[in-house]
Amino acid sequence: MQETVERVRAWVAARDEELVAELADWVAQPSVSSTGLGMAAAAAHGERLLRAAGLRTQSVETGGWPALVGTGDGPPGAPHVLIYGHYDVQPPGPLEQWTSPPFQPEIRDGRMFGRGTGDNKGQHLAQLLGLRALRELTGGLPCRVTVLLDGEEEVGSPNLAAAIRDRIAPQAPDLALWSDGPVHDTGRACVVLGVRGILTFELRARGADRPLHSGNWGGVAPNPAWALVQLLATMRDARGTVLVPGFADSVEPISAGERRALDALPLDVAAAMAGIGVTELEPPAGLGFHQRLMAPTLTINSLGCADSGDHRTVIPELAVARCEARLVGGQVPAQVAEALRRHVEKHAPGVEFIPGASMAPSRTLPESRYTETVLAGAEAGLAEPPLLIPALGGSLPIAALTDELGVPCYGVPFANVDETNHAPDENLELDWFRRGIVASAAVQLALGDRPAHP
Prior knowledge:
Blueprint: H1 2-14, H2 16-28, H3 39-52, E1 56-60, E2 67-72, E3 80-86, E4 106-108, E5 111-113, H4 117-138, E6 144-150, H5 160-168, E7 175-178, E8 190-192, E9 194-195, E10 197-206, E11 212-213, H6 214-217, H7 224-235, H8 256-264, H9 269-275, H10 289-292, E12 297-305, E13 314-315, E14 318-327, H11 333-347, E15 352-359, E16 362-363, H12 371-382, E17 387-389, H13 399-405, E18 409-411, E19 427-429, H14 430-448
Parallel strand pairs: 3-6, 3-7, 7-18, 8-17
Antiparallel strand pairs: 1-2, 2-6, 4-5, 5-19, 9-16, 10-14, 10-15, 11-13, 12-14
Helix pairs in contact: 1-4, 1-14, 2-4, 4-14, 5-13, 12-14
């Protein structure tokens, strides 16, 4: 395998200018799913990239933006590998905060700047170029491959699960791979086994039909701000314990393999806290830094009243808390939402509970069948042993893969820590792009060396 990996590395070096130009062309194509900007042309561009990797292509109608599917054959008995990525991007945001226009990619100091460089065009293009290199160098693919490019990841992937059920599940893969998000905070390569889910919600407490003078009406008119903070105090105590019955009843315990992986991660708590300008960890005490990122949370994102202008001595007519719950293995967004709704109804029946967007958590255990193989392939391609991360603290629509297909799912990120995805001046270090191409091919080669799951 290593000989072929080195041939891929040489292939990337020899075609560097061509491959970087291909990335620039892809980034220059707008694909903003929330507004529709450029989406039709982006779908056609994505199909061309799939065909260039030697894959048979199909644009799958979803009721929203299409999902792009590419398939390629492998040797009999080899694993069937699903590669997931997304071709849609976030809106540019404030244009004046970009050093160069978001859809005019520019290279500065070894980085390409532009919307979608790291999230996610550069990363799934690296996967496709790894397949292309293998075809050109070896005449075929070491595994049977299905590539799925989602057109709606940046709007929550509302149609992804249905597309997987209809188009992927009938010929189910043995495992799934994805490349998204940054590498480890230390800058080291990593393999990620899962992600937390999320449920957003809003609490709205109402008082009088207008703001009232707090002297003339204080002690007489109800104050929705007090109603709201008193409700919030019933939901989590000062030690950080979530007090909502049913919120975390279904949380699955950490496995022995997950605990070993957590213990092996590099850690400098003091430096991490200093980096954000604080000195202490959030309650509860007794949980390790990385273990906290695998635990469910209940967070207040913002808290305020309807009058957002200058401070005045009034009793507000409306108080609003925008909140989220981060979810872990075993939790189901709809069940958590129902637990929160019941709690609000019991403690503050006059407060409105409004559930928002949600995404289920995804969990693959280190003990899963292909973990060591993916780690070995990533190490061969990236030329460094990757850290094994049991779960990202953030959320991605990976549950649609693990839950719908029932297969292990592995993330191999190829973006720098400071990619500033979703923000102005999003960027991708081109060295990570190049290494990602080699690593993508190396993981396929490693998987091809072992038989598919019976």
